[in-house]
Design a protein that fits this description.
Radius of gyration: 17 Å
Largest sheet: 7 strands, parallel
Shape: globular
Number of helices: 8
CATH superfamily: NAD(P)-binding Rossmann-like Domain
Oligomer: single chain
Bound molecules: NADP nicotinamide-adenine-dinucleotide phosphate
Strand order of the largest sheet: 3-2-1-4-5-6-7
CATH topology: Rossmann fold
CATH class: Alpha Beta
Helix content: 40-55%
Amino acid sequence: MSATLFDLKGKTAIVTGCNTGLGQGMALGLAEAGCNIVAVNRRAPEDTQRHVEALGVGFLSIEADLGSTAPIEDILVRTQETFGHADILVNNAGTIRRADSLEFTEKDWDEVMDVNLKSLFFLSQAFARRCIDKQRRGKIINIASMLSFQGGIRVPSYTASKSGVLGLTRLMANEWAPKGINVNAIAPGYMATNNTEALRNDPERSEEILKRIPAGRWGESEDLAGAAVFLASSASDYVHGHALAVDGGWLAR
Ligand code: NAP
């Protein structure tokens, strides 16, 4: 297979929540394939910026809190002003709250759903409208989870949001595939980031999880780079509504 299938030179990707963790791993993978990066974060992603710029591609930082849909228009406008157009959108920003379902609060419900599901949908909508207006292809990559497929424990709003991400990925793919937009998801397994710090610090849960991963290790942020480049590139032009698990074999078990 030709390497040019995965070439992203001259393309621009908006990546949300890429100051750390999986978003950073995917932003660096896309940049290595030649892609300019629009980094959307609550605070300046200095480490990501340094690494992306060292690869010789363009970098734009936009500070935005995706707990609200208010910044979405501005993200698209500023991307257009700097790079002309966004070809790729990676909806990675996500948050989690842990508590027993009997105690779970409405605040913890809303805060998770607003970032993980509502902003993901409306940012995708704003991105897709522009692709369609300009008659350009687009690639949307949503970050799902093992809890798009399984129930989980003590994370009701997270499970609801990530199950919703899988449903929305399929819905948007159905509506936008005929318009030249690929909508797919990556479903990471158990990855060593801030999101799983509480789990990894709990010796009992941590051992239970590790024993169940066929690959025998927690995933690392770099493990998502290949899947992100594939779903962002022309190599995946006929892939629509798919959730690609990058999970060390967790779902196969
Ligand atoms: P992480 O290190 O906590 O990263 C989450 C990212 O989302 C951070 O950049 C965070 O910014 C950003 N974010 C959270 N709330 C935001 C808001 N209101 N506005 C803008 N940005 C916001 O965890 P991660 O594991 O890399 O998570 C990345 C994605 O992967 C999430 O969607 C998560 O649900 C998903 N995921 C993770 C795992 C795993 O095992 N780690 C597994 C499956 C799916 P701040 O730094 O400012 O908080």
